[in-house]
Design goal:
Layout (H helix, E strand, L loop, with lengths): L3 H29 L6 H24 L3 H20 L10 H5 L2 H24 L21 H17 L5 H28 L7 H20 L4
Helix pairs in contact: 1-2, 1-3, 5-6, 5-7, 6-7, 6-8, 7-8
């Protein structure tokens, strides 16, 4: 259960190792017979169906172990990325994202994603470098003087989008968007709390850093507004 990468990698190896044989030997036979079947894709589809069976059996066993469940989701997302980008798998075919979209599994994924995002926010705001810009010494890069915590937070949101963008239904994607909105609001509250501690020194270093953070986040969210 703690090594889903074993069978996921094995399937990717089988697909890669058989592609030349399927293209050179099997596909011409299908073409000659007037079939529209793509041998390589059908081979991939059949192996993915085995993975879906395996996932359906394994997920109930690790649903309440955060570490194992997170590891499984991470490995499945890596597998899907390689399957589509390297092996040309079709989005209309069955995929692991359908299993991750099933209610009990999906709700658990959302819960765990939120838990780890909040932990990340705790650590980024308690870091000594939280209010310092990574690029403070490079003026042409650092026009907005973005503190490290704001940049890390927006990267966190971007990573979450990247993880859920291939979900098969819009309703599931919207639930993840809801999580992101919660995280933005949580970050806003945290900034407000820090700002209240700094009101006596409103021209101080940290107060200015908070204003820069808010400006940066608002600007990036406006840029993302065109991303459906």
């Amino acid at each position: 259960l703690n090594k889903p990468e074993w069978y996921l990698t094995q399937v990717l190896m089988w697909i890669g190792n058989h592609s030349k044989f399927l293209d050179d030997k099997i596909q011409p036979i299908l073409d000659k017979a007037g079939s529209s079947v793509n041998a390589g894709l059908e081979f991939s589809r059949a192996l993915v169906m085995l993975i879906l069976e395996k996932l359906a059996a394994d997920i109930p066993c690790l649903l309440y172990d955060d570490t194992l469940f997170c590891h499984l989701v991470d490995e499945v997302l890596l597998f899907e990325r390689e399957l589509y980008s390297i092996h040309g798998y079709l989005s209309s075919f069955p995929s692991c994202m359908h299993i991750l979209s099933e209610e009990s599994c999906f709700q658990r994924w959302l819960t765990v994603e939120k838990k780890f995002a909040l932990q990340k926010m705790d650590s980024m705001l308690s870091s000594e470098a939280a209010w310092i810009s990574q690029y403070k010494d490079i003026t042409d890069v650092d026009e907005m003087k973005v503190p490290d915590c704001a940049e890390t937070f927006m990267t966190l949101l971007l990573v979450i989008t990247d993880r859920y963008k291939n979900l098969p239904t819009a309703s599931r994607k919207l639930q993840f968007l809801g999580l992101q909105k919660e995280l933005v609001d949580d970050f806003r509250i945290r900034l407000t709390q820090v700002m209240k501690e700094e009101t006596r020194a409103s021209l101080g270093f940290r107060y200015c850093a908070i204003l820069n953070a808010v400006n940066y986040i608002a600007t990036v969210l406006a840029d993302w507004a065109d991303n459906v």
